[in-house]
Each structure stands twice: as C-alpha cells, then as structure tokens.
Amino acid sequence: MADLSIIPNGAVLIRNGIVDEIGPARRVENLAGARDAREIDAAGRVVMPAFVDADMALVRPASTDNSPMDECRALRLMSRRKAEARAAALAAEWARYGCATVGAYTPCATDMKNIGKVLGVYRALKFRPLRIRPIFSPGAEDPDALTSRWLPSVLRNKQAAILELRVEEFPEPVLRHVANTAAELGYAIRLRSAASPDPAALQFALSAGAIAIVGPNDRQRAFISPLADAGCVRVIPAAEAFDNSANAAADMRKAIGEGAAIAIASSHRAREASSFNMQFLLHLAVDRLGLTPEEAIVATTWNAACALRLSHVTGSIEPGRSADLLLMEVPDYRDLAQRAGHHDASLVMLAGNAIFEASGKPPARRNAWD
Known about the structure:
Shape: globular
Strand content: 15-25%
CATH superfamily: Metal-dependent hydrolases
Structural class: alpha/beta
CATH topology: TIM Barrel
Radius of gyration: 21 Å
Helix content: 25-40%
CATH class: Alpha Beta
Number of helices: 13
Number of domains: 1
CATH architecture: Alpha-Beta Barrel
C-alpha cells in the first residue's frame, strides 16, 4: 500500500474523536455536521496520519555502561513511581515529534515481577498522551511457568494482547509450544531476531501466523510473498537498517517490489544511539534505503499500524478511524523526507485531541478542518 490518496484542498470532519468525512473542502464544509464544527486552517500545509512507532521501549533504567544484567537489576530497583515518571517524559517526546501510537515492549525485564511492573506502567500511561500497544516479551528461563501461568494471567488482566518471542533465546520445540499455546489463548504473535531471520525462523513465522517480524531484512526471496499474503509485516529497526544501508537498500527495494510490507521503527533503546524523530527516520528511509516518499510514509504509518494489529483504528485517514492526525508545516508531503533533522509537526492529534501543539501558531477557528 503506497498510494497515499492525496486530496488537494481537502478537508477532514471529525466527530467525537473519529474521522466522520473526508474529501474536497467545498463538499465537506457544506455538510450539515460541519456547520458548528471548530475549524483548523491547514491551507498551504500537509495533513497526514500521525506516525506509528511499532517498536520501542518506554520503560528503561537510566543509560549506563553496565551490562544488560546490571540494567535488569537497575530496573528491578527502580520504583514504580519513578518508572512512570521516566516513561511519561519519554512519551511526551514521542508526541512532540508527531507520534501518536507506539508498540511498547518489555526490555530489561527477565522475570515476571519486572515484566508486570513494566506492563503496569504502560497501562497507567495509556493515552497520557500516547496510544500504547503493550507487547509482552518474556525470556525463555521458565517456559512451563510462562505457558501455564503467565500467558493466561497477562491476557486475563488485559495487560497485553501481543506476545513477542525472541527466536535466538528459545529452542525450536519450546518456541513452537509457547507460540501455539499463546495463539490458542488469543494472543497475536510477533517474532524478534537479532540477525537477519534464517529460513527456519521465517517458516516458523509463517506457520505461527505471526503479525510481524522485528529484525534486519533478509534475502530469503521465497518467503516474501507468503508472509506478505499472511499479513506479516517486516518491522525494520532503524539502527539495523541504516547502519548497513549500502547492502540493505538493494535488498529492501527487491523486497518491496515483491510485495513485502515494510515498517520502519525507531526501536529506541536507552543504551544505544537511536532517534525518536519519525520524520528523520522517514528521511533516512528515502535517502539511504531507496524508498519513495510515499513508501516511507506508509512504512511509518499504515504498515506500522498493521504490525500492531491496529490498522482498523489508526495509520490512515478514513471514515471510522480514530482522528490521529498531523499538521505538517510544509506545502508538499514530499518535502518531509528532504528535511533531515527537522520535525515539522505543528499539531499532533490523538482521537481528535491535541497532544502536542507548537507555540506561536494561530488559534483554531470555527468550522471544519480545511
């Protein structure tokens, strides 16, 4: 899906946080529902779906040079109140850079008490200000307890509905058993691979009905179409993609040409260099990976929403979808990918509510969104 369905001089009518109508401004403004609407003048600017970051972590201890094990201990010692405060500050930064929805996994948490703390923070911060899609990403230390106790508990308590399995950590029979148990309970499955997934991992993703694979792109052409047909999105962490862009660009171009659904994610980690400016990632996707501006926008909106099983809610501007919108201070959407280091969002909306608004902008006026 790389057709952006551009509407020049268009308008969006929002009712109760949901997109009610879209189309040419002249038609939308004459609708009965637009007569008493509040108007936000977007003339000469771009209105687009809010960014979706399909892979990030809101809860991490302070960045240190310690080992991952020390990081786990630091998270265990961190109070729930401090974890919420740190996560809230990070969420506000994501909103500032145009992101309204995130897929937040549970890093550093190797025991269920720690994982429960992280998932509890995600639930407490939902819509404050972001839509958070919690991702349960346990370790493989105790697979029996995971399948018999924790999978049912997390789902029953509505803490997460996506289970992420790191393919390098689980022996293949255990990986299959955990995935099958989770799917029977109603979880959506996604896989994470530190390296380019090998044929065995890709075959497992296909048989498990995985909604996404997080990891570097691969050259296994035989799996591209079957995985795309099954609705599996390839979530490419920014660091893995752009650090090896010379080789990744050709592979990415071939994959997209064969129908792969690509999402570009920040995969923000506190201990590594990464950016949560999704517009900058959009620029890198075009500049280094050879995506078109249209493909890059789809990779940071619609495909990312599909990777979180949220495409019925967000990722596009359509009647019935949540009004998650950006007002970008550029005259043409193709300019966004040319402005490295900029973030041009002057207004970020989640379900019709402003979660970030740049200072010094003219106040909203009455009537429809033009």
